Amino acid sequence: MDDGWFSSFVTYLEFSYEDLIQLAIEHALIVVISVFIATVIGVGLGVATYRTDRPRELVLAVTGTFLTIPSLALFTLLIQVPLLGLGAPSVVVALVMYGLLPIVRNTIVGLREVDPAIVESAQGMGMGRAARLWRIELPLAWPVVLTGVRVATLLLIGIAAIGAYINGPGLGEPIFGASIGSAAALNDVLSGTLGVIVLAILFDLVYVAVFKLTIPKGIR
Fold it and tell me: Which element (helix H / strand E) includes 65?
């Protein structure tokens, strides 16, 4: 890439940075909403099924199947659903579907890796099943669960850009809105792509901080 192209890109950013920041905020917001919903559903499914083989295998199979669906195909299907249509609602539903597997799987793995002796000791002290889950098992499983949420978040940051294909918000707009062959196409695509990369780095740094703040050194 020559200096002329680089100068052109810098000039493009000077005139477009406010729009790009707004798109980045929209992108981050739709990812946060989707990750929150996927975490509530995913942890719930993991807690409900980690003790029983058949339901656990079924949940993992179904959530794993979601990840095999091509994103453009899923977005196209969802816009046909009443109450969804074009825009953010369909994007959120798709992102939640894609984010479930890492969260469900890590919740199950984390809970199953809790030392049975610790659980039995808590039971011997008179703790009921719900108390053992909330006060013993989930805290010990939290590092693994949080890793699943982290993986899901980074996955969804990339997929969210494809949501622009169905008029979803975010940094996919300059990527999919670029006129192929036009002088500005490369700048549009590169700005959107770099924006997604920067967002992924920022989110990852947030998770690093969350790990340090919420996980004692002894169980990291």
Answer: helix 53-66
> How far is residue 152's CA from residue 170's CA, in Å, rounded to a whole number?
18
Residues 6 or more apart whose Cβ sits within 8 Å of residue 78: 84, 90, 93, 94, 166
The yes-or-no verdict on residue 22 having pLDDT over 80 is: yes
pLDDT tens, residue by residue, 137-177: 888 889 999 999 999 999 999 999 998 888 888 888 888 76
- For residues 17, 21, 22, 25, the Cα torsion angle rounded to the nearest 10 degrees is 170
- What does the domain layout of the chain look like in residue ranges? 3-219
Taking alpha carbons only, the member of 167, 112, 175, 111 closest to residue 139 is 111
Q: What is the pLDDT of residue 160?
A: 93
Q: How many other C-beta atoms can be found within 10 angstroms of the C-beta atom of residue 149? A: 22
List alpha helices for 67-181, DSSP H.
71-78, 88-112, 116-124, 129-132, 138-162, 172-177
Give the class (CATH, top level) of 3-219: mainly alpha
Fill in the DSSP letter of residue 135. Answer: I
Longest C-alpha distance within the chain, in Å? Answer: 73
The three-class DSSP label of residue 149 is helix
pTM here? 0.88
Banded model confidence at residue 3, pLDDT cuts 50, 70, 90: low
